[in-house]
Design a protein that fits this description.
Blueprint lengths: L9 H13 L2 H8 L3 H15 L4 E4 L2 E4 L1 H29 L4 E6 L1 H6 L1 H11 L4 E6 L15 E3 L20 E4 L10 E2 L8 E5 L4 H13 L4 E6 L2 H9 L5 E3 L8 E5 L1
Parallel strand pairs: 3-4, 3-5, 7-11, 8-9
Antiparallel strand pairs: 1-2, 6-10, 6-11
Length: 260
Amino acid sequence: MQSRKNHINVRQVEIFRATMKFGTVTAAAAALGSSQPTITRELSRLEEHIGFRLFERRLQRLVPTARALKLFEEVQASFIGLDRINGFIDRLREASEEILTVSSLPAFALTILPEAVKRLNADHPDLTLQISTVDPRNQSSISGFNFDIGLIEDVYTERDADARILWTFKLVAVLPPQHPLATRDFLEPADFEGINFISLGPRDPYRLSVERIFDMAGTQRRLFLSSQSAGGVCELVLKGLGASIVNPSQRSATSSKAWS
């Protein structure tokens, strides 16, 4: 077998791939915007460079060898990433030039953002908006390098973005409609002594902050249910299964009171 003389270049790989994909030199030349003699010449050079034949010439047709078929599998795998990039470029070309990326907690994405997006769209109809959600347990994953705007509840201490406080709010107790505490304007930690309490997930930062408040007050609640989302907590409360404390943006049809 002839030893390899040079590394093959990207153009040669493209020509080989097109020839394998379309089956003929003529079709490959048309797909690449080239000529049949050029494709034929480059294929011969490619075979010379790699030191083995890729095609058998039979009745004016190119029949790929076993090695060519194996090489084509490798080439196809290599081109998957490039095809994905080209597809993304096409989508960017079709979209408006103005793209705003927003990363938000699920609670805000379901409550606050829809109205904000409606107003933004009215003022900037050509703006393309891309919204993604971030796990409440990993709010630090929002980075100024990845998104234009991030909406979280914690204090953002990283230096890769300009952090601003948009609003502050009191925690809200969500209670079944006929719950005795629903008639109260304000609730204290002691008011939850011994009642069925529905919590967020064990690692949720909201739950951990609420737990600290009750621990400091020495309040003992009956913790028998938890849900990963505040919306799920509110639905469980609505079914009369217990009370909870959530972000005010997640209040559902249950009775709710400010909690001090």
